[in-house]
DNA sequence: CGTTTTACATTACGACTGCAATGCAACGGC
DNA sequence: GCCGTTGCATTGCAGTCGTAATGTAAAACG
């Protein structure tokens, strides 16, 4: 038997370059194209041009366009997760459930150009996966995890809170998460202003946690 | 001066056929294609084939693809409006604000295959217009009208309701509308079940109008 | 040192795209 | 009855698409 000594690569990796790095580079270009012109403007040549590489190189790192799309979707998810993690980390220890949720959800709203670009890509992928259910599994996981987390936070606030304003955690969490998503969509579409969205989010939290939390 | 006698057509219309009818036929085919394969699968030939006509005919009724897309978007809007109007009409006289809103919003959720197809098309157009702001104006109007209506309903319920659970109508309406949109998106993406979405919607209404309205 | 593998670049191909051009039958108005 | 307009079909074109094939330079490996 032969023992494979794989220093830092998981797969049968190349000689010099870091595959992950190149794929991230390409995925970044894809996201820029998608954010500006939509997912239907994403082509191998277009992405390659945006990334400043040849389309042959893109083809070298992704055997098909679909593989590239799936990878880019995973990068979008990681983007969002990292954003939320950073915002939560900056919150210090032991934030109240309401503060924690408000921070996380507000971070996922497209309130500045950077997040707006990410949001447009995410929205494009949302429409994309709605028609290709096979690649939506990862998104399902994300939503399910978020939903469970939000419900937990609501539940933990209920225990210590007043008993007169009791709400069911799961439906409230589902509604809150959906409200966040909808607010994001409306802000991206220009139907709501950033201010409107934030106010609505706070009002939503007021409804769940009681006013002036 | 010459008086134009235009019996039932608004524009300089053809000899025999009803332009509007043909355009609706084509738009219907477009929506079917978009619902099944996404908006990026919408091409003149594809739509023509789905409609059972030649692509030359499509070209005859729409001078460009963009014109066809814009028209289809307007049809999607009318679809939704008609759906809501029908649901409200079936409600009888003087429904409570809560019942009225619940009926309208639930009607816009993709809870059956027909509404799901419409929803996929609407979602695709949402992503489409997010990148082409010039064609989003009509959608803005719809959202603004809905927002004002929902806020009015909430306000009118406040007047007659108990004073202890007062909520600001505008942010609550914005949140409720966004929640509906987000629920729809999540159901379309398969992240929420229809049951989850309905339960969340009712919970949301509970939060605004008080439990067991 | 020679061979294999990796990292790209280039080119080609068939399919598809939106759209313009053209053809043609039929009906309306004069 | 002729003629122009309208309704629709067909064809062609320039361009883009995804992908496969091929070429080349260099590093890795025995």
TrEMBL record, chains A, B:
Q: Give one Pfam hit by family name.
A: TetR_N
The UniProt entry, under InterPro entries, shows:
BetI_C (IPR039538), Homeodomain-like_sf (IPR009057), HTH-type_TetR-like_transc_reg (IPR050109), HTH_TetR (IPR001647), Tet_transcr_reg_TetR-rel_C_sf (IPR036271)
Q: Could you tell me the keywords of this UniProt record?
A: DNA-binding, Repressor, Transcription, Transcription regulation
Recorded hits in SUPFAM superfamilies, A to Z, give: Homeodomain-like (SSF46689), Tetracyclin repressor-like, C-terminal domain (SSF48498)
- Key word DNA-binding present: yes
Q: Which ranges carry the HTH tetR-type domain? A: 20-80
Under Gene Ontology molecular function, one entry of this record is: DNA-binding transcription factor activity
Indicate what this protein is called per its UniProt record.
Answer: Transcriptional regulator, TetR family
């Amino acid at each position: 038997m032969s023992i494979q000594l794989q220093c830092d690569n998981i797969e049968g990796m190349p000689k010099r370059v870091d595959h992950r790095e190149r794929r991230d580079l390409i995925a970044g270009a894809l996201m820029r194209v998608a954010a500006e012109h939509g997912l239907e403007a994403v082509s191998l040549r277009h992405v390659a041009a945006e990334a400043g590489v040849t389309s042959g190189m893109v083809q070298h790192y992704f055997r098909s366009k679909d593989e590239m799309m799936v990878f880019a979707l995973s990068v979008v998810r990681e983007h969002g997760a990292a954003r939320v993690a950073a915002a939560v980390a900056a919150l210090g220890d032991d934030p109240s459930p309401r503060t924690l949720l408000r921070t996380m959800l507000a971070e996922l709203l497209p309130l500045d150009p950077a997040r707006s670009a990410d949001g447009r890509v995410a929205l494009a992928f949302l429409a994309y996966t709605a028609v290709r259910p096979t690649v939506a599994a990862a998104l399902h996981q994300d939503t399910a995890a978020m939903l469970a987390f939000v419900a937990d936070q609501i539940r933990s606030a209920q225990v210590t809170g007043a008993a007169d304003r009791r709400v069911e955690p799961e439906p409230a969490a589902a509604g809150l998460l959906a409200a966040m998503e909808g607010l994001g969509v409306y802000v991206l579409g220009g139907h709501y202003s950033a201010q409107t969205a934030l106010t609505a989010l706070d009002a939503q939290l007021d409804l769940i946690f009681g006013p002036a939390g």
